[in-house]
Amino acid sequence: MDPLTQGVLGASLSLSVSQKQHLIVAGAFGLLAGMAPDLDVFIRSESDPLLFLEFHRQFTHSLFFIPLGSFICALAFHWLIGKPQRLSFKQSWLYSALGYSTHALLDSCTSYGTQLFWPLTSERYAWNSVSVIDPVFTLPILILLVFTMFKRNTWFARIAFLWALTYPALGMIQRDRAEVAGWQLANERQHAPIRLEAKPSFGNILLWKVIYETEGHYHVDAVRVGTSVKKYPGEAIEKLEMSRDFPWLDLNSQQAKDIERFSHFSKGFLAKAPSDELRVIDVRYSIVPNQLNALWSIKLSPSVTHDTHVEYETHRANSSASRQLFLEMLLDF
C-alpha cells in the first residue's frame, strides 16, 4: 500500500492501546514504524535493475522480522520522541512493534506479492482484496485518527482499526464474485483455464481485472461487481515462450536469468509485448483492466555482452482516453 495508508494504519493500532497522556507519541511511533518496512526500496543497483524487485517486500516485510524491525525503529525514535515524553524504552518498542506489525499483512492484501515467511520460503503472498491505493479504505482511518487526537478518545482509533479489518474482508467477497464471473466468461469461450485470478483495479473494489491462463494464452477481462455483475470482455496474448520469442538468446546468459527472476516476481504471467519484439511484459497490471497495456516490463538486447542485465522500465503514461474508459467501467456509464 501507499506510505500514508501504511502509516495511519500503524498509528491506529498503536493508538488503540495507548494511554491518554501518550496519544501523540504513541501515534507517532505507530505512524513511523508502520511506514518503515518500505525503506527496502532503497536497496538498488545501477548495474542490476531487478535487484529492487527481489528485495522489495522481502526480509523487511517478513513476519519473522517484526521483533528486530520494530526494535530498530524504537532505537531510532526513542531518544527523539519517546524519552522526552517520559516513555520507557519498552513502551517505545511496544508502540513501534504494533505499528510495524500491520505493514506486511496489509501489503499482502494487495496483488503485488509479499514474502511473509522469508527466509523459510520466497513465496509471494497476494490476497488480491485491496488496490495499492484506495481512498475509500484510507480516508475513514485518517478521519478517525483525527477524531482520536481532538477528542482524546482511543475508541475512534479502535473503530479505525476495525474498518481496516472489515474493508479487505469486503474486498475478498468482491474478489470471489469477480472470479466467478471470470470462470463464466471462460466457459462461454469453451476454455479450460489452468489458473484464474481477479485483481482490484486502481482505487476501488468495484471494478476488477480478471486474468486467466490457458494452454498457450493469457486472457484479460474486466468485471464490475456492484448490485449486479457486468462483464467487459478484453484481450488475449500468447504466453512467453523463450525458444520461439527469443531464439537468439543464450539460456545461460544474464538476460535469460533475468527473465526467470522477472517471472518469479510476476508469478509467471509474462508475454512478449505486442508493440516491441524485445520487450517482456507483466500482463497482470494495466490502467484499463481489460487491456494489455502493461505498467512495467523488461527489455532485452541481442547485441550486449553475456553478463549484461536487462533493462527495467515502468509505463505510467495515462491518456485521457484510457482514463475515460476506466471511469465509464467503474461508474457503469
UniProtKB/TrEMBL annotation:
Keywords: Hydrolase, Membrane, Transmembrane, Transmembrane helix. It comes from the Bacteria. One of its GO terms (molecular function) is hydrolase activity. Pfam families: YdjM (PF04307). The chain crosses the membrane at residues 63-81, 93-113, 125-148, 155-173. Signal peptide: none annotated. Coiled coil: none annotated. InterPro entries: Transcription_regulator (IPR053170), YdjM-like (IPR007404). PANTHER family: HYPOTHETICAL MEMBRANE SPANNING PROTEIN, MEMBRANE-BOUND METAL-DEPENDENT HYDROLASE. This is Metal-dependent hydrolase.
